[in-house]
Amino acid sequence: MSVVNYLARFFPAQQLADDDDIFQLGFVTSMFALQLVNFVEHEFGLEIETEDMELDNFRTVHNLVALVQRKSPARN
């Protein structure tokens, strides 16, 4: 499942642009932030480390995709 499809499950009435700030739009609670980290780890087989836990990494679709690409074993 893509990042966009995952987010669309939670916000079906909102079509997110790649650079929409999901925190500023009020979509993210602390529980959802944990779910988002869990999704990224399990869906893409990545380990999100403490230094990756910056809000900017999770703020937009674009930033989430960039995080996945940076952490992807194929890229390292």
UniProtKB/TrEMBL annotation:
Q: Which residues form the Carrier domain?
A: 1-72
Please report a single Pfam family linked to this protein. PP-binding
Q: Which domain of life is it from?
A: Bacteria
Under Gene3D superfamilies, the record lists: ACP-like
InterPro entries in the cross-refs: ACP-like_sf, PP-bd_ACP
Q: What is this protein called?
A: Carrier domain-containing protein
Output the lineage of the source organism.
Bacteria, Pseudomonadati, Myxococcota, Polyangia, Haliangiales
